[in-house]
Amino acid sequence: MFNFSGTRPNNLGVTDGALTPCPGTPNCVCSQSDRPQEKIDPLPAVAMDKLQQVITAMDGATIIEQTDNYLYAEFKTKLMGFVDDVEFFHGGSAIQVRSASRLGKSDLGLNRKRVEEIRSALA
Prior knowledge:
By secondary structure, this protein is α+β, with helices and mostly antiparallel strands. It has helices at residues 48-56, 110-122; strands at residues 14-15, 18-19, 28-30, 43-44, 61-66, 70-76, 83-90, 94-101. The protein is built from two helices and eight strands; from the N terminus they run E-E-E-E-H-E-E-E-E-H.
C-alpha cells in the first residue's frame, strides 16, 4: 500500500496577521496571495464554530487545531490518500484561507474547488 499523505508541514499558522505563502506550485490557493494563479477571495466573516461545523461535515476532513480565530484541517482523498492542508484565519472583516497539497505539483483545481464548496456551505 502506498502512502501519499506526506509529512505535516511545520511552517503553518499565522505570522503578523498572514498565513504562510503558497510555495509557487499550482496546487495551492491563498486569499492573501498577490499571484493571480494562487489568489482566491477570502471567505465571509462567520463564527468560527459555524466554519468548524462545515469542515467537520466534509468528506476526508480532520480538524487538527482550532482557536478563537484560527482553524487548521487536513483533507485526505479517498482513493490515494493524498493530504491537503487547509487553514482559516478570522482577521476582522473576512476569513483568510489557504489550501495546499502536501505532495505533487498539480491538484487539478481541487484546492480551489474545496474552498468554493466551503464558501457555498457558509452562504
